[in-house]
């Protein structure tokens, strides 16, 4: 591997984002909890890249997760995807209790509305 080249695992998972965004932070925390290697592609605030516009044409916002080139938008949708794709032992939502998982999702989206992302 040449210097500066990313390992194959990180190349599979890219996050379009910025360190300054709590929504991006939520996605990075989820990936780290799962031990998933990823590459952060920094977006410049106020200047949206062509990749961002093509990957999230509906909202044109960060974060976007690119998994093997396929884009997923909205931080809570991304966290759920990460939880489903990368297996336990680390689990973000309760797997064996759909009611408990629904309550978690309720408070996650509600706290985002009230205070911004908590996780
Ligand atoms: N509901 C979205 C919110 C994402 C969001 O608001 N991202 C901001 C950065 S913190 C953004 O991209 N703002 C640019 C814009 O509004 O054009 C999520 O949870 O991912």
TrEMBL record:
Mind listing the UniProt keywords for this protein, alphabetically? Cytoplasm, Transferase
Looking at the Swiss-Prot or TrEMBL record, what is one Pfam family this protein matches? GST_N
- Keyword Transferase included in the entry's annotation: yes
Q: What is its EC number?
A: 2.5.1.18
One Gene Ontology BP term is: glutathione metabolic process
Sorted alphabetically, which PROSITE patterns does this protein's record hold? GST_NTER (PS50404)
Please report the stretch or stretches of sequence annotated as the GST N-terminal domain.
Answer: 11-90
Which Gene Ontology cellular component annotation is one that this UniProt entry carries? cytosol
**What subcellular compartments does it reside in?**
Cytoplasm, Cytosol
Q: Which GO MF terms are attached to this record? A: glutathione transferase activity
Give me the reactions it catalyses.
RX + glutathione = an S-substituted glutathione + a halide anion + H(+)
Establish whether keyword S-adenosyl-L-methionine is in the entry.
no
Which top-level enzyme class is recorded in the Swiss-Prot or TrEMBL entry?
transferase
Instruction: Kindly indicate where the leader peptide sits in this chain.
Output: none
Q: What function is annotated for this protein?
A: Is involved in the conjugation of reduced glutathione to a wide number of exogenous and endogenous hydrophobic electrophiles.
Q: Which family does it belong to?
A: Belongs to the GST superfamily. Tau family.
Recorded protein name is Glutathione S-transferase
Q: Which species?
A: Oryza sativa subsp. indica
Phylogenetic classification of the source organism: Eukaryota, Viridiplantae, Streptophyta, Embryophyta, Tracheophyta
């Amino acid at each position: 591997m040449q210097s500066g080249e990313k390992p194959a695992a990180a190349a599979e998972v890219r996050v379009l984002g910025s360190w300054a965004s709590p929504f991006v932070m939520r996605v990075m925390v989820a990936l780290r909890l799962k031990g998933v290697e990823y590459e952060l592609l920094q977006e410049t605030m106020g200047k949206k890249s062509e990749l961002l516009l093509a990957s999230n044409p509906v909202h044109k916002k960060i974060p976007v997760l690119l998994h093997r080139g396929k884009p997923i938008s909205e931080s809570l949708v991304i966290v759920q995807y990460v939880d489903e794709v990368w297996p336990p032992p680390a689990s973000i939502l309760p797997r064996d209790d759909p009611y408990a998982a629904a309550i978690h999702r309720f408070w996650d989206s509600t706290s985002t509305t009230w205070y911004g992302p908590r996780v």
